[in-house]
Amino acid sequence: MTFMDFPTQRELVLTSGTTKIGIIPDIDLVSHFQVDSWQVLYRPMQTGNVKRWGLPLMIPNFSRLKNGIFQEKGTTLPIHGFGRLLAWTLTKQSEASATLQLQSSDATRSNYPYEFTFTATITVGEGTLTYTLTMENRSDEVMPIAPGFHPYFSVAQSDKARLETSGPPGFDPKTWQWDTQPPNNPYPFPQKVTVRIPRRGVLTIAEQPVNGQYSLSAMQVWSEPASAPDHEFVCFEPVVASEDGLNRPQDRINIPPHEAHQLTLQLTAKPF
Predict the structure, then answer these.
(1) Is residue 259 part of a domain?
(2) Which helix (H) or strand (E) segment is 107 a member of?
(3) According to the model, what pLDDT value does residue 256 have?
(4) Domain that holds residue 120
(5) Residue 175 DSSP SS3
(6) Which residues make Cβ contacts (< 8 Å) with residue 176, sequence separation at least 6?
(7) Does residue 141 fall inside a structural domain?
(8) Residue 223 covered by a domain
(9) Helix, strand and coil in the chain, % to nearest 5
(10) What is the pTM of this model?
(11) Which pLDDT band, with edges at 50, 70 and 90, does 187 fall under?
(12) How many domains does the structure of the chain reveal?
């Protein structure tokens, strides 16, 4: 036994058949996704590093802003926003799903001066993880937002160049020096990407349309070099917009006053 064995004391467990999902509610982290014996999401077994773990949500911005400045308001926002740094509240729970919420507060207003409610609902199915994000603008003005997901998928270092993917367009696993210069590149996201992981199975990363609309237009592909303490993962990150996207009105989501915007990401894992 190690201190990181699933489930730790912090983890809430959702189950459907042979599929298990772990969630650490207070930081809105999907910490585990397992189908049969395949552990799909990376767990930092040696380090316990929460910033190299599972499936975090990056909100209100995923990507780095130029000079860190949110131009709309002249404030600063860190890369990946503040969502993973603040305390979320577990509002609903069942055997198969959990709902978490983050409300605007004094901790958010100085950097992101809007009144909001962010609601994350994570649901387990047989071989599936469904993540629905609802962003409610409670302000009297338009609320710009450009979140994204940062899943760490377990991949052995020796298997990274042997991945087979259906996308994103322009990405080829064989062209990278995974040990020394792994990718950190944005690509278009075609709403669905499959990744065949040697000795594991086939993973599908897909956005489900909400009212016929898609919201995630880019996919960042990233990993760590073999010298990093945590490196046996590849991140395929579906995001609203690439670098500085929150500062581009045409690329971000602009939520009208007192309205909400919803998006849904679904991961499907089929073990060999």
Answers:
(1) yes
(2) helix 106-109
(3) 98
(4) 12-271
(5) helix
(6) 160, 161, 182, 183
(7) yes
(8) yes
(9) 10, 45, 45
(10) 0.97
(11) very high
(12) 1
